[in-house]
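User: Quick sanity check before I run a bigger batch. Here is a single chain. Can you write out its predicted 3D structure?
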Amino acid sequence: MAAKAYRTSGQVIEQRTRRGIAGLRVEAWDKDEKYDDLLGVDTTDGRGRFQMDFDQTYFREFSPDLEPELYFKVFRRKQLLKSTRDSVIVNANQQTEVTIEIETAQLPKVSGKDRISARQIFKAADFLKQSDFRGVWREGLNKIQTSFNFVSDIAASAVTDMDFEPVQVKGPKEREVIDQDVATAGKALKAKGVVVAEVKPYDPKLNRQALKNVTRLPAGLKAGQQVILYEQAGKVRYYALVPEKAAAEVNKDHLTQLSADMQKMRGDVDALTTVKKDLTSLKSTTTRAKTDLTKKVEKVSGQLTDTAQLSVNIKALQEASTQKDKTISTLEKEVAALRAAHADLLKKVDAKAITRMAADIKKLQESLKE
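Assistant: Done. Predicted structure follows.
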């Protein structure tokens, strides 16, 4: 797993004029209880800007901090102008932007003109200050002398004793990794059981981390070891061995992440189980609703059948009523005709009666005359 990368940047300004100050050395530090860790050094540009990049390996060497506690020191050559150790940035983010104010009275007067840039001078000074060239040179001579003595003893004994096994390169060969593309180098390492833990850009700067990387170049790689590849333009230019402690931390982080993933997976399984139960309940409810709906449809269908029969009966009644109305109309006409005939008959009967009465009256008058 790749080490977590950080970038801190900012500006050093004069407190009164608010203008950036060029040519100042800015150091970024991680505050610890025992030993503070130097995270990076940069020199301010013409606008007073600076920028430093580092990763977790810079501040987790002596204390297992999760995040750095940042503070800064500002120098003009060897003179310390300001330190922010009393106001650290606790648990700094991966991207941190700061503004450091310098009082005008703190700024020394500078005369003359630098032939070499201040950035180069300060970086060279830091490199010389942090490096033990005498110790490295002495250690190199000792290693050469030890190796020479050993080789001499081998040559002397080879004349009389030749029963040793030939020396063979057991790990991946240097040319199988260096100047190869990352994929090819990774395959060669994997074939020998070596794990590529990380791929970083090749950046041979003169700083503490570069010196650490030099010491981590193994004489030979063994199965189970982890390495960091440094690539440039797609080609592997260098590689370094991951320290066992760092590898253990990587594995620990990997196990922690794996545990978190497993816990999340268990939660997802529980959620899916709940959804499955809900779906089963919904399916049962849907089945019951379907059965009830079928019964209602059958009932409505029976009612529709009865309604159709009722419509037929109503239509028959309507036809019978129409026929009855026609019969009544005919009877009414016949009754009217009978009434007219009866009226005529009455008229006729009354006329005859009047004629007889008139004849009877005439006879009675004649009788009376006699």
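The domain at 5-130 is CATH 2.60.40.1120 (Immunoglobulin-like).

User: Great, the batch can go ahead then.
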